Amino acid sequence: MEIKKVGVIGCGLMGAGIAQVSAVAGYQVVACEVEQRFLDKGMANITGSLAKLVEKGKLSDEDRTATLSRLKGSTDLNDLADCNLIIEAIIENKKIKQETYIKLDQMCPPDTILASNTSSLSITELMAALSPSRQQRFFGLHFFNPVPLMKLLEAVRTILSDEGAYASVCEFGKKIGKAVVQTRDSSGFIVNRLLVPYLLDAIRGFEEGIGSIEDIDKGMMLGCGYPMGPFTLLDFVGLDTTYYISEIMFEEFREKRFASPALLKRMVLAGMLGRKSGRGFYDYSDPKNPKPMKLN
Ligand code: CAA
Ligand code: NAD
Asked: Once rounded to an integer, what is the mean pLDDT over residues 217-231?
């Protein structure tokens, strides 16, 4: 099946990036949000990201104009009815995601492919309430943050997947410039299965006093060649999102390495969500010069 029009639900950190790379690659895109103010914020992020790419000579001015002409915003889910592929990127909450899929299942033609950008939820469980034919056309498409810069896309199939539809989403991934790895439906797929325990262990190490936030970050950057230390990355991903992911993965595997450290939960409850709220393991009052937080 040929994918021509792509719907993206949620225009936050991830959804904005997914809508952007799809439009840059030539697809017609409709990005859907719950409220106009969130849509405006997501669209502004896309415009800002495209401007950076133009500035660096990675995108021509004409391509930017053409990209923006292919991109439409909406706060009405019905505007996605004629999309061939709909990618959901709303918060990591099973119930909210499932309610959205039920609406899409009723609204879309039988051949529409649905996909979730979930970091940790079971694809099989997410699609459980859908019609049997839609379940065959429901996949995980797991992008990485920041979407315009990160090369990887995990394409997740289930035991019910239609092979032709799976081939179509893998092909879509290649057309938007991603390196596609194929994986089965297991919580966290390939990357988060390995990355999440590492990030949580950094917090546990800090709680135990192995080093300061800055020194642990420096250790992993200079000692292992990672582009960001774990605390910079945690703030980048979002502490709320990391907390939801750890709860889901702990529920799935019942292993301590996936359990949420007490400090992570306390920070989320205190509204310290990382870069997006201006405060996490670092304080971003001066964005060019983040300062490690003093945590009592
Ligand atoms: N669009 C366009 N340009 C962007 C951008 C975006 N969204 N984000 C950053 N840039 C630009 C920056 O502005 C910068 O431009 P200047 O050089 O003009 O300042 C340029 O890209 C490079 O950025 P940096 O200077 O910060 O350079 P960098 O070499 O550190 O690259 C990075 C940035 C690619 C983000 C790199 O730091 C990196 O790879 N970090 C690790 C990210 C990572 O691990 N992501 C995965 C998170 S886990 C996940 O996504 C899965 C999950 O389910 C939670
Ligand atoms: P975010 O909080 O930045 O964005 C979520 C957006 O979804 C918000 O703008 C919100 O208004 C919108 N939304 C909520 N309910 C909606 C609905 N019913 N309809 C339309 N929009 C709705 O979150 P995010 O970091 O972009 O994460 C989104 C998804 O991507 C999650 O499943 C997360 O696990 C996954 N993910 C996140 C990262 C990351 O690094 N943050 C990486 C890969 C995957």
From this structure: 98
Work out whether strand 291-292 and strand 282-283 pair parallel, antiparallel, or are unpaired.
Answer: antiparallel
Is 128 a residue whose pLDDT tops 80? yes
Of all protein residues, whose CA lies closest to atom 5 belonging to ligand 1? 49
Q: Which atom of ligand 1 is nearest to the CA of 119?
A: 53
* Catalytic residue numbers, as ranges: 119, 142, 154, 192
* Secondary element (H or E) of residue 287: none
Q: Are 245 and 119 in contact (CB under 8 A)?
A: yes
Ligand 1 centre from 122 Cα, in Å? 27
CB of 149 closer than 6 A to ligand 1? Answer: yes
Q: Long-range contacts of range 63-68, CB-CB < 8 Å, 24 or more positions apart? A: 63/24, 67/20, 67/23, 67/24, 68/23
Domain ranges of the chain: 5-184, 196-292
Architecture of domain 196-292: Orthogonal Bundle (1.10)
CATH pick for 5-184 out of 2.60.40.10, 3.90.1010.10, 3.40.50.720, 3.30.70.20: 3.40.50.720
pLDDT in tens, 245-275: 999 999 999 999 999 999 999 999 999 999 9
Tell whether the model's pLDDT for residue 1 goes beyond 80. Answer: no
Digit-coded pLDDT (tens) for 17-39: 999 999 999 999 999 999 999 99
**Pocket of ligand 1 contains residue 228 by CB under 6 Å:** yes
